[in-house]
User: Fold these one by one.
Assistant:
Number 1:
Amino acid sequence: MIGAGELVYEYPGKRALDSVSFLLPAASITALVGPNGAGKTTLLRCIAGLDEPYSGSIEIAGIDVLRHPREAHRHIGYLPDHFGLYAELSTRQCLLHAGRSRGLGGEALDARVVEVATQLGIVDKLDDKAGSLSRGQRQRLAIAQAIVHRPSVLLLDEPASGLDPESRAGLSELMRRLRSEGMTLIVSSHILAELEEYCTGMLVLQQGRVVEHRLLEQQTAQGTGRMIRLRLAQASTRLRELLAPHVSARTPLDADTQKASFEFSGGDDELSALLQSLLAAGLPVCELSVEQASLQDAYLRAVEHDRGGVS
Ligand SMILES: Nc1ncnc2c1ncn2[C@@H]1O[C@H](COP(=O)(O)OP(=O)(O)OP(=O)(O)O)[C@@H](O)[C@H]1O
């Protein structure tokens, strides 16, 4: 479990986090998304106990991160967006160093280094210098360093950047496996299509504030979060008015007099009733499609809505 309460973080002259609160369930993967400068890196650094917020609270696995940062560090793995490696050390030495700095040692650490290098597909690079690895291999080594101590929480800032398509697929698979082992992950990325493959929730930050937090698995199970696209054979000024009561409260209705798209929170019976009400009102519906709202849809709507855009 990861909890944040009323977090405020300020750089000189710039409030980067503004009263950020959320609760993420254990064994979940949350996509942390938002425009450039939204505060994602700042939030991850605060959760990792690397930056101290001006006010607020952070709790990880029952530990107050601000009061007990050292204890919290043992439970946290963190991959920064611009990670550094010791170029002159071998992959094995890098992993041993990361393990020792987290309190591991002895034969258990030696075995763990091989295990984690195998998981990340760099076991054949154990004796190569980190500086001689490719960009993608270095990225995988950095992820291996972040999980060598089996943290219960993993924070990844843009983990897929620099990875080839095969490695990205491998990363998705790794995330799912770590989650199935009970790890709680937060992944910041701009590649929403990839996040969709493995994330269980989405936290949208904009200008330092949480503008949306949704649980994607729950949404699928409840059949909510569906996008409806509808078109009339001829325009009708009543379209908006008739649709308005059926639109999910948290997202806007995008409609003119002939076509509309909106998020629908009801089930199949409600959808059937909606269609019947349009036809009963004499609207010439000639097209209606239903699709599961993609992460991209949900994200763009949340950001757009917050800016006071589409309505
Ligand atoms: N060291 C700093 N000094 C002053 N302002 C900073 C500093 N670091 C970040 N900021 C500002 O804080 C805000 C949040 O930055 P942050 O890096 O957390 O955003 P981000 O969402 O991770 O962005 P990106 O998607 O571009 O990586 C931005 O407006 C940024 O300009």
Number 2:
Amino acid sequence: MLNVNHICKVIDEKPVLQDISFSIAKGSIVGLVGENGAGKTTLLRCLVGILELDKGEITFNNKNIMTEPEVKKSIIYIPDSHHNFNSYSVKEISSLYEAIYPNFDMTYFHSLLERFNLPANKQLRNFSKGMKALFFIILAISAKVELIILDEPTNGLDAIVKRNVLQLLLEEVSEQNISLLISSHHLNELEKITDTVLLMKNGKINSTFNMDEVDKEYKKIQVVFKGDFPSKLKSLTNLQITNHTGRVYTVVLKGKANETLSLLKEENPLVIEELPMSLEDIFITEIGG
Ligand SMILES: Nc1ncnc2c1ncn2[C@@H]1O[C@H](COP(=O)(O)OP(=O)(O)OP(=O)(O)O)[C@@H](O)[C@H]1O
């Protein structure tokens, strides 16, 4: 559906995106994660043609988004800040989106406003930060497009609304067979809903994870030795200590995990236990921290 082929973007002589390629299939939920300044927002802005590419191409349903811009009616991008809309009313904004997106469903839009207790007769400046975030997610869903791109969508939402909104997005994906691309620093939320996660570092896609196969690639182990952590294990390139409190160490093994696990066991640890691997563990292992 969406294909990104070797795209590059330079801003102020700085290479912000460097040779990025990936694709998003119909019906999938893809997460985009990376440290601050990695280039996530720039990438999202390129995907919808707000920023021009310096190299590479982006196609949606085999149509180039730059040379065949009508294809952008099938994609909606919700940025992480909505200040530009403050002086407009709910009615004005929904009418604007209805004019842009041919399948915009106004009846559904109003039913979602009601479901989430948002007023339909106010200006956006009267909404709290969380209400605005919720409003734009509802707007995106009501546009009935094929791909929704969300930048930090759950910032400012309280725990209950957040859970309901994520549930709503999941329902839309399974019932309408749409796709989602979500950039977020909330790794615990992303790991619950995504099929694939793209990890960005310094303007590049550092790695791509299929969330169902993470356990094959990594192992997270908690281990306690009688004395210090053996120095010969510390020098292993596929072993990273991610945490330690006293003599209790948490390590992540990447690749050849079973072989390295045997090396740990050979050092006769007092305790050795495998823990579930989270997206945050992957992030720390790959980005370093
Ligand atoms: N308009 C701009 N002018 C100058 N530099 C820019 C501009 N937009 C982005 N950059 C630079 O590009 C890099 C990537 O920024 P971007 O906002 O895409 O990162 P990000 O991964 O979304 O970060 P964060 O997680 O903090 O939101 C940063 O170094 C940033 O300073």
